[in-house]
Amino acid sequence: MQVMAARAGFALDLAVHADRPALAGDGVVTYRELEERVAERAVVLAGPRRVHVLVAQNTADFIVEYLACLRLGHVVALVSACCADQIRALYGDADDLHPDLALLLPTSGSTGNPKVVRLSHRNLESNADAIVSTLALSEQDRALTTLPAAYSYGLSVINSMLTVGGTLVLTSDSVTEPALWDLARIQRVTVVPGVPYTFEMLERLGGDMLA
Q1: If you placed Cys at 100, which of 81, 120, 146, 168 could pair as Cys (CB 3.0 to 4.6 Å)?
Q2: By CB neighbour count within 10 A (0-12 exposed, 13-18 middle, 19+ buried), where does 158 fall?
Q3: If pLDDT is split at 50, 70 and 90, which confidence band does 84 have?
Q4: Between the CA of residue 10 and those of 33, 49, 78, 115, 160, what are the distances in Å?
Q5: How far apart are CA 9 and CA 128, in angstroms?
Q6: What pTM value is reported for the model?
Q7: What pLDDT, on the 0 to 100 scale, is given for residue 8?
Q8: Is residue 4 part of a domain?
Q9: What is the number of domains present in the chain?
């Protein structure tokens, strides 16, 4: 009999952050409300442990599904819409899943075939804790979801903000779109994640987007 690993803490008692805003953008979802939605979804998803292939999106529905799967000990395979069927074909059988396995994260491999990194609940939690510590994040922080949730960086933003009780400001807008910066101002965003190219591009634009 396999012994299940401890779950990532940020996926468990979300209500500990009470009525603080968890998700913002098109309306506000508090941590208490997020806990209720995750608990309801977990009832639906309960059953034998298996791989759940989720098309990663910066939406409330995706975050609810992701957290419910982690809470139940299912394995989450994050994909973009283009390769969901390929991942399902590779990981549809749960018979030999390692008990510590929590997440299958896609990578940009050197061939056309999908490749994944296998991460445990401890991996996810320690990564989120390290980000919180390094950046001195607090429950007062509000982060834009400017990166795809199917990427390790984008997912780390989600995990770290939920860990600390901060707010995820949900958006799919590009950093080159004025609407994103309007949203950032309205939502009093304090964290704008990006790769070096993102900030190089903003610098070339002369900072007009931020004015």
Answers
A1: 120
A2: buried
A3: low
A4: 15, 20, 18, 26, 8
A5: 10
A6: 0.86
A7: 83
A8: no
A9: 1
